[in-house]
TrEMBL record:
<feature type="domain" description="RapZ C-terminal">
    <location>
        <begin position="164"/>
        <end position="282"/>
    </location>
</feature>
<dbReference type="Pfam" id="PF22740">
    <property type="entry name" value="PapZ_C"/>
</dbReference>
<dbReference type="Pfam" id="PF03668">
    <property type="entry name" value="RapZ-like_N"/>
</dbReference>
<dbReference type="InterPro" id="IPR005337">
    <property type="entry name" value="RapZ-like"/>
</dbReference>
<feature type="binding site">
    <location>
        <begin position="58"/>
        <end position="61"/>
    </location>
    <ligand>
        <name>GTP</name>
    </ligand>
</feature>
<protein>
    <submittedName>
        <fullName>RNase adapter RapZ</fullName>
    </submittedName>
</protein>
<keyword id="KW-0067">ATP-binding</keyword>
<dbReference type="InterPro" id="IPR027417">
    <property type="entry name" value="P-loop_NTPase"/>
</dbReference>
<dbReference type="GO" id="GO:0005524">
    <property type="term" value="F:ATP binding"/>
</dbReference>
<dbReference type="GO" id="GO:0005525">
    <property type="term" value="F:GTP binding"/>
</dbReference>
<keyword id="KW-0547">Nucleotide-binding</keyword>
<keyword id="KW-0342">GTP-binding</keyword>
<feature type="binding site">
    <location>
        <begin position="8"/>
        <end position="15"/>
    </location>
    <ligand>
        <name>ATP</name>
    </ligand>
</feature>
<dbReference type="InterPro" id="IPR053930">
    <property type="entry name" value="RapZ-like_N"/>
</dbReference>
<dbReference type="InterPro" id="IPR053931">
    <property type="entry name" value="RapZ_C"/>
</dbReference>
<feature type="domain" description="RapZ-like N-terminal">
    <location>
        <begin position="1"/>
        <end position="157"/>
    </location>
</feature>
Length: 283
């Protein structure tokens, strides 16, 4: 059977992720006690109608079950259960803002524990799960639609035997993505922003593509990153990695990083079965 475990801090989008998987035909359970996982898997294997399941585990679990979560997962994998852990998170300030705007009560907050303290405590409590995550998704700058799209493309539709490869462009002035496995800085390349008639376009538009495609530095950078990724992807797959996120950043995340990300995605789609591209700073 196929088992996906969704976890992460409150307010990061776990319920949304679970709903997406339910729409994709997964048998879903919200907030399952981690200690019941082995028994749940045993029951699921007896039921031929359901060959894939998704459960969410959050900080409301018994503390002893969260501490022994790594040993629970080891036992499941010894049973040859295909299990993946998806961990959703967001920046501390973003989580504070979300709870303040919705006026929801954080599950760990109380008269003795403020919202700020609860969010920090939750990160500590979920650390045993976060460390084992196959994929970490930073939802700080994702809309509800973008989060649903990300879960659908990267998790629900991922082919069983292939590693999902994501090229993500971003702007350094808005911070480095916390869910990136590799980060490449392309700010040294010629910047279309300083060419007045190109400023209004992005790396998806022909005028910018023609400008960057004519620069030898850009072609050299693309070739170096391409060869690096091509060299090491098989090693990650051989090590049973399910997801790789390669982030490429320029100053604003609109021109150079977008162009290089698209060019890499196009190249690797001819060689790799599961390739996606995302531009964090574009609408």
């Amino acid at each position: 059977m196929k088992l996906i475990i969704i976890s992460g801090r409150s307010g990061s989008g776990k319920s949304t992720g679970l709903h997406v998987l339910e729409d994709q035909g997964y048998y879903c359970i919200d907030n399952m006690p981690a200690g019941l996982l082995p028994a749940f898997v045993d029951e699921m294997e007896k039921e031929p109608l359901y060959d894939k399941a998704a459960i969410s585990i959050d900080a409301r679990n018994f503390s002893q079950d969260l501490r022994r979560f790594p040993s629970i997962m080891n036992a499941l994998r010894e049973q040859k259960i295909e299990a993946e852990i998806i961990y959703l998170d967001a920046e501390h300030a973003t989580l504070l803002k979300r709870f303040s705007e919705t006026r929801r009560k954080h599950p760990l907050s109380s008269q003795q524990c403020s919202l700020d303290e609860a969010i920090k405590k939750e990160k500590e409590v979920l650390e045993p799960i976060a460390r084992l995550a196959d994929l970490t998704i930073d939802t700080s700058q994702l809309s509800l639609h973008e989060l649903r799209d990300t879960i659908s493309k990267r998790v629900a539709r991922k082919q069983h035997s292939s590693m999902a490869l994501l090229f993500q462009s971003f702007g350094f002035k808005k911070g480095i993505p916390i869910d990136a496995d590799y980060v490449f800085d392309v700010r040294c390349l010629p910047n279309p922003y300083w060419v007045t008639h190109l400023r209004q376009y992005s790396g998806l538009d022909e005028p910018v593509k023609e400008f960057l495609g004519s620069q030898q530095q850009v072609l050299d950078m693309f070739d170096d990153i391409k060869r690096f990724v091509e060299r090491w992807l098989p090693c990650f797959e051989a090590n049973n990695r399910s997801y790789i996120t390669i982030a490429l950043g320029c100053t604003g995340g609109h021109h150079r990083s977008v162009y290089i990300s698209e060019k890499l995605a196009t190249y690797f789609r001819e060689k790799w079965p599961n390739v996606q591209v995302r531009h964090r700073e574009l609408p």
